[in-house]
Design a protein that fits this description.
446 residues; alpha/beta; TIM Barrel; 2 domains; 8-stranded parallel barrel; 51% helix
């Protein structure tokens, strides 16, 4: 049920919570899980009344807090990984573009089965736009899913690819930086305590000197990291990530990593905590490389680069290691190599989107409606020589926003079939990444 008044929300919670001066005390957790949280999260996403929507999101946060569920920074764990006090696993960071609440529930279930505490929910700057999700809505969905699935302890929510638009930056630097600061402020207010700054778009490979190639990258990253330190909540050290190679570009080198880190550390003010991880390029592309028939080409990922640069990141700079983007479309038999090569974090997005759209349980009429909308509204994105299959594969991520409500409210049997497939893939990935049995590490360091 979707409420459009605060009174409606309050009536729905009768017998489930007791109101305090600040927040609530849960009096019937089973009632919350069985009935109330579903209505709260639907209201948080779809209520037509802004005040009611905001109140619902706040109540989800209060309920989660009273149950011992809280948004957290993964900084402490990553510092421990940098000291080699815990190792042998790769942290999955999962971008949820659609069916956010139900997908997050799948993730919590998969994590619980293998006793995993080290996993991240994330969404990129671009994804926030085309999926029609604000940071506040996204975090409310994640915390509601934690409540529904009986999770306890920290939840890691991350802003992925908070990216500098190079063209806008070169045209008007101050406006572009101001826009990123505004997004960072909004995200932190919405309990995003992990943020990846992607200023790798500013790297100029035409310059001969590697430090000069990376200079605008590390200078902007240092500036935005300092801003994060200014506004982060008391008692929270937001985990910040940097990036040296734009995904889909040339593979990163040790020289580039050192140039970035040395420049970053020399630029950021003394006493400020810097970045905890660094993303590199090793041969992947976001969404994979799509063939004319709509299938994804096999990727030759440079695991040796991951291993070498990860070692440099940990041993020379105290980072948790390196981060791999664009990995979800790799074959399943490749994922065990990430922990074997010491990869700290791996980002997973399009593979889950493919499971949803290509599932036999995804309603055929809904898929047809999405594809028709894409053809009518995004025709200018169909490049010369691109087949229909390539076009729809590349653009269907942009169907999540216009059809968000239709996806959330699909038939229960269809939804159950899709989430079962998602959960099976999550089970496999948690196993391959050796992300299980990490709850004790999280308890110790977070």
């Amino acid at each position: 049920m979707i409420f459009n008044s605060i009174g409606g929300i309050q009536n729905s919670l009768m017998g489930a919570v007791r109101y305090l001066k600040e927040g609530v005390a849960v009096t019937d957790e089973e009632l919350i899980k069985d009935e109330c949280i579903d209505d709260l999260v639907q209201t948080a996403v779809f209520s037509e009344d802004d005040e009611t929507q905001e109140a619902s999101r706040a109540l989800i946060g209060h309920i989660a807090k009273d149950l011992g569920i809280f948004s957290a920074s993964i900084q402490g764990l990553y510092e421990a990984m940098g000291r080699s006090e815990c190792k042998g696993f790769t942290v999955p960071a999962i971008n949820i573009r659609g069916l956010t609440y139900d997908t997050a529930r799948c993730i919590f279930r998969a994590a619980k089965k293998c006793d995993s505490g080290a996993f991240i929910f994330e969404i990129a700057k671009s994804e926030l736009g085309y999926t029609d999700q604000t940071p506040a809505e996204y975090s409310a969905c994640i915390l509601a899913a934690a409540v529904k699935e009986g999770h306890r302890g920290p939840v890691f929510i991350q802003g992925d690819h908070f990216q500098v638009n190079a063209a806008n930056y070169n045209k008007d630097r101050e406006t572009e930086i101001a826009g990123l600061k505004s997004l960072i402020k909004e995200a932190i207010a919405a309990r995003f305590y992990n943020i990846d700054i992607d200023s790798s778009t500013l790297v100029d490979l035409s310059l001969a000197d590697v430090t000069e190639q990376q200079r605008p990258n590390f200078e902007v990253a240092a500036l935005l990291t300092a801003y994060i330190r200014e506004i982060e909540p008391e008692g929270v050290t937001v985990s910040v990530g940097g990036e040296i190679g734009e995904v889909g570009g040339k593979n990163s080198t040790e020289e580039e990593l050192r140039a970035y880190m040395d420049g970053f550390n020399a630029t950021i003010a003394d006493g400020l905590t810097g970045i905890s991880k660094i993303s590199i390029q090793t041969g992947t592309a976001h969404g994979g490389v799509v063939l004319p028939d709509g299938t994804v080409a096999k990727v030759s990922l440079d695991f040796d680069t991951l291993e070498r640069l990860g070692k440099v990141a940990r041993e020379e700079y105290g980072l948790c290691g390196v981060v791999q983007h664009g990995a979800s479309t790799l074959p399943n038999d490749a994922f065990h190599l990430f922990p074997e090569k010491g990869t700290a974090e791996v980002h997973l997005a399009t593979g889950f989107q493919n499971i949803m759209y290509d599932s036999e349980h995804f309603p055929a009429e809904l898929k047809k409606a999405v594809y028709t909308w894409l053809a009518d509204n995004l025709a200018d994105e169909k490049k010369e020589g691109m087949t229909d299959e390539q076009f729809f594969y590349k653009t269907r991520k942009k169907g999540y926003g216009p059809f968000k409500k239709e996806m959330w409210t699909m038939d229960a049997a269809n939804l159950q079939g899709i989430t079962a497939e998602l959960e099976a893939q999550l089970d496999l990935l948690f196993d391959k990444l050796r992300a299980g049995n990490t709850v004790e590490f999280v308890k110790k360091y977070v």
